[in-house]
Amino acid sequence: MNTSQDPRESTRGLLNTAAVLRHGFLDVLGESTSSPVPTFAQRAMNSRLVATVYERLWRPTSFYLASGITARAEQRRAAAALRLSTAHRLLDVACGPGNFTAPLARCLPAGALAVGFDISEPMLTRAVVDNDGPQTCYVRGDARVLPFDDETFDAVCCFGALYLMPEPFDITREMLRVLRPGGRIAILTSYSGQAAPVRKALTATANLIGLAMFDRRSFVDLFSSAGLVDIEQQTQRAVQFVAATKPR
């Protein structure tokens, strides 16, 4: 990759559809396309207020309470699991304001590219302001149909978002489609493997605000059935981290 090339131009070259530059990010949806926001949680992710406070307050606090793991520790685990020191293209699906995209980009080799992908215009506008960089580009689109050709990225991740999405398993399969053979995928999502009373309380709360809860086998089985190898899973409280390799 040409290290002197603007990351937006590098990303534009990876897209399989037209994109316009808006507020510093590439947009493949256009202004007339509204985000699907049927639940309270999804409406929140499209709020300008939430986009402003998400990175500094909401995300670090809520995930620490849910997992007991700090944001910095999460980022270190993600970089190691994705093997970013040897990756050249990273896709961060549902990146929000880029609070993972930017630090993960700094773990990539010189000249590599990190693409943050989200459907929320307020989140991406915030990402460009707070988490832009010389190896980072943000794209607005629908993760159900990722606008990239097969086997485009060396590493693909989605942290803290699949439980918000209307078709989380289809989106995960899309992530696998754009992952190169030998590449790594990692997800951080909800976990419903607690003792029955705790599980019932968590599930009831999640249902109320529109979050999905996934059991221990959901993504492990999906990865296994897709032929992935080196599947690793870690669970903490209400959160699970799952990583795997797409075989060559």
TrEMBL record:
GO BP, sorted A to Z: methylation
GO molecular function, one term: S-adenosylmethionine-dependent methyltransferase activity
Top-level taxon of origin: Bacteria
Gene: menG_1
Gene3D superfamilies membership: Vaccinia Virus protein VP39
EC number(s) recorded for this UniProt protein: 2.1.1.163
InterPro entries: Methyltransf_11, SAM-dependent_MTases_sf
SUPFAM superfamilies: S-adenosyl-L-methionine-dependent methyltransferases (SSF53335)
Origin species: Mycobacterium innocens
Short name of one Pfam family: Methyltransf_11
Name this protein carries in UniProt: Demethylmenaquinone methyltransferase
Methyltransferase type domain span: 91-187
Keyword tags: Methyltransferase, Transferase
